[in-house]
Amino acid sequence: MKAYLLLEDGTLFTGRSIGVQKELVSEVVFNTSMTGYLEVLTDPSYAGQAVVMTYPLIGNYGVCREDMESQAAWPDALIVRELSELHSNFRSRESLQSFLMEQGIPGIEGIDTRALTRRLREHGTMNGFLTTNPDFDREDAFRRMREYCVSGVVARTSCREKYVMPGNGKRVAVLDLGMKRNIARSLNQRGCEVTVWPQHTRAAEILATEPDGIMLTNGPGDPKENTAVIEEIRKLYASDIPIFAICLGHQLMALATGADTFKMKYGHRGGNHPVKDLLTGRVYISSQNHGFAVDETSLDPKIAVPAFCNVNDGSNEGIRYIGKKIFTVQFHPEACPGPQDSSYLFDRFLNMMEETDA
């Protein structure tokens, strides 16, 4: 069956329907990863977005459910050049098409994803309208695209109740803002007892458990929308407990300490983004997924200083907080998908907690 993708600038792409048949409006973003489509689909940071995979063949190794980064798929839609009809992998249990059907995710294949990606790079992220109806009302589609905005997604993707991953080492409180599993897993594999808290948890409740460290996770949407969470993070900042924050958590900590964030033209999404450690000069290849960034010029040097920068565009990729055992990064040291170059940051966090005890 034919499917149609209309962008808010009037560009129309015609392809074939994949997944379920559903009409929707979403924010269209692109990911440059060559592998890891299942981790992308199950990353809560994509809630409210339709994902374009720039690699031309997707689905060739099927679905290995052990690689899922959450319990469900979060993007509104998947957009690919070609969805592989055959899959081959000794760990695979099903095709990507069957997974999309199960998860209720629609999509489109057979379009020129290079042209679509270039359009998003040149003109910035746009909303799009996806349908299988050849006689769709263009004016109604444009109206719906103008009205659409990604909102309320942190509350939608966070866990509903706290849970514990047992360990014999440091006790880490993780504030789930739309967390990828491998963040908690990376801590747990290092011996930490990990307690994962829902995004609406009050700082006082977390601090009352006297954790050795606090982790603020990744998550979807505009950081400025999370005003109640920012207030609680401000209280966590005021404590003397070591804090490590990733992606959305990085942005929320910046906002909580008086800095500003802005929406990027088309964001960073993929497993091949170079970031530079400003202290050592060393460059790491990182996994990233974000459409907002911290405005470095808004940092108060008495409170925080840049720690990492993006080699491609110079945007901020990390912050170190003065007089505090707090550091935050925009990229994903837990990867999945992506390189493991910066996984050492979890060890740095553990060392911070050890130093606190000394």
Automatic annotation (TrEMBL):
This chain belongs to the protein called: Carbamoyl phosphate synthase small chain
Q: Which organism is it from?
A: Moryella indoligenes
Annotated active site residues, numbered on this chain, are 247, 332, 334
- Keyword annotations of the record: Amino-acid biosynthesis, Arginine biosynthesis, ATP-binding, Glutamine amidotransferase, Ligase, Nucleotide-binding, Pyrimidine biosynthesis
Q: Which SUPFAM superfamilies match?
A: Carbamoyl phosphate synthetase, small subunit N-terminal domain, Class I glutamine amidotransferase-like
Segments carrying the region annotation (CPSase) are 1-170
Instruction: Recite the lineage of the species.
Output: Bacteria, Bacillati, Bacillota, Clostridia, Lachnospirales
Query: From its record, what is one biological process in GO terms?
Result: 'de novo' pyrimidine nucleobase biosynthetic process
* Record Pfam families: CPSase_sm_chain, GATase
Q: Does the keyword NADP apply?
A: no
Q: Name one GO molecular function term.
A: ATP binding
Kindly tell me the pathway this chain contributes to. Answer: Amino-acid biosynthesis; L-arginine biosynthesis; carbamoyl phosphate from bicarbonate: step 1/1; Pyrimidine metabolism; UMP biosynthesis via de novo pathway; (S)-dihydroorotate from bicarbonate: step 1/3
Kindly list the positions annotated as binding L-glutamine: 45, 219, 221, 248, 251, 289, 291-292
Carbamoyl-phosphate synthase small subunit N-terminal domain location: 1-131
EC number(s) given by UniProt: 6.3.5.5
